[in-house]
């Protein structure tokens, strides 16, 4: 397996990084940057990178989407890319042909924003919403939290427990009767979350959904989050190195001190390991068996690396410390909040051991 990026992928990475550097605001909006999101959808067609062309996508690979996630994570771009990508993946894998053509076009073009209403520890194996059939309609009752960018989403993909006990995926439209979207306080100020309260809410079941089909959707979400965390960790290392070269103590840059060198070296080692794990997981997306092993591994590795890099970068910035005026606190907030999505690192390693038969 070749872990090198192609020339086209390197060019794409450089172009996207330059675009985000020019377009991402220094002051993060309270909600999200709608203008930036529309440009990412319209000018760059970012949400549909690995989606087949017949549904409005570019027909590339998950590696390309992982590159995009890495750059979005590096820039902490205030856009609902992750939330929308999870919903798109669920519809692509669990919807029938009619649903794919109807729903994906709007989600990929930016006409609508999707959200995946199951980012907690039991997203793939359990559900907090119950589905019942009444007069030919599917009605959902229960609560979902956390829902990334739920307050700006136009539709939600909601896992629900059906009558026979299996978990099915349903689409709920924003504004549906009985649906309440409650924005929650978020430690990560760059990515808001919400809670869905559903009381007999009409929904449309994804018609190709079968028991167990939600597992690869959540695994792909783990891979994309890992790629995003990789970008954040890289940004923390760059900020730390830049500061260590400029900050002087005792007549010399602090980067010349052994303790600071060791912290930066340890950050780089973990980032390299994370990059390999993310690339392997993205390349394994075509095989459900390989993805089941690679996804929790990549998520756990990336989460631990991002937290370590954010903490070490703050320590290296000892003269500044934890201050609102410096961007490092945003990376620390993103690291800690993303670490908990779909379960902690310990839970992901336990899942990996279980899937590997250990």
From TrEMBL:
Cofactor: FAD
Keywords: FAD, Flavoprotein, Oxidoreductase
UniProt cross-references to SUPFAM superfamilies, sorted A to Z: Acyl-CoA dehydrogenase C-terminal domain-like (SSF47203), Acyl-CoA dehydrogenase NM domain-like (SSF56645)
Protein known as: Acyl-CoA dehydrogenase
Acyl-CoA dehydrogenase/oxidase C-terminal domain segment(s): 219-356
Name of a matching Pfam family: Acyl-CoA_dh_N
Organism: Mycobacterium asiaticum
Family: Belongs to the acyl-CoA dehydrogenase family.
Domain Acyl-CoA dehydrogenase/oxidase N-terminal: residue ranges: 7-110
Lineage top rank: taxon: Bacteria
InterPro entries membership: Acyl-CoA_Oxase/DH_mid-dom_sf (IPR046373), AcylCo_DH-like_C (IPR036250), AcylCo_DH/oxidase_C (IPR009075), AcylCoA_DH/ox_N (IPR013786), AcylCoA_DH/ox_N_sf (IPR037069), AcylCoA_DH/oxidase_NM_dom_sf (IPR009100)
One Gene Ontology molecular-function label: flavin adenine dinucleotide binding
């Amino acid at each position: 397996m070749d872990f090198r990026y192609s020339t086209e992928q390197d060019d794409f990475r450089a172009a996207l990084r330059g675009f985000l550097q020019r377009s991402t605001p220094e002051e993060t909006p309270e909600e999200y940057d709608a203008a930036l999101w529309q440009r990412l959808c319209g000018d760059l067609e970012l949400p549909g990178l690995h989606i087949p062309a017949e549904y409005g996508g570019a027909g590339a690979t998950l590696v390309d989407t992982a590159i995009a996630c890495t750059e979005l994570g590096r820039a902490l771009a205030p856009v609902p890319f992750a939330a929308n990508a999870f919903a798109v993946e669920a519809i692509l894998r669990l919807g029938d042909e009619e649903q794919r053509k109807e729903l994906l076009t709007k989600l990929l073009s930016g006409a609508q924003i999707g959200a995946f209403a199951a980012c907690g520890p039991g997203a793939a194996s359990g559900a907090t919403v119950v589905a019942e059939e009444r007069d030919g309609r599917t009605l959902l009752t229960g609560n979902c939290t956390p829902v990334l960018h739920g307050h700006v989403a136009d539709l939600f993909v909601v896992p629900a427990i059906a009558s026979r006990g299996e978990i099915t995926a349903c689409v709920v439209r924003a504004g549906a009767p009985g649906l309440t979207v409650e924005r929650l306080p978020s430690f990560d100020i760059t990515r808001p979350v919400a809670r869905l309260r559903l009381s007999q809410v009409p929904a449309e079941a994804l018609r190709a959904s079968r028991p167990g089909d939600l597992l690869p959707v959540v695994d792909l979400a783990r891979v994309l989050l890992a790629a995003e965390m990789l970008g954040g960790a890289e940004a923390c290392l760059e900020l730390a190195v830049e500061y260590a070269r400029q900050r002087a103590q005792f007549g010399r840059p602090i980067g010349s001190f052994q303790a600071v060198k060791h912290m930066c070296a340890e950050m780089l080692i973990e980032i390299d390991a994370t990059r390999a794990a993310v690339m392997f997981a993205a390349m394994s997306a075509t095989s459900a068996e390989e993805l089941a092993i690679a996804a929790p591994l990549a998520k756990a590795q990336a989460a631990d690396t991002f937290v370590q890099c954010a903490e070490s970068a703050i320590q290296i910035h000892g003269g500044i410390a934890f201050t609102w005026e410096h961007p490092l606190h945003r990376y620390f907030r993103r690291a800690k909040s993303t670490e908990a999505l779909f379960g902690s690192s310990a839970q992901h390693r336990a899942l990996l051991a279980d899937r590997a038969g250990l």
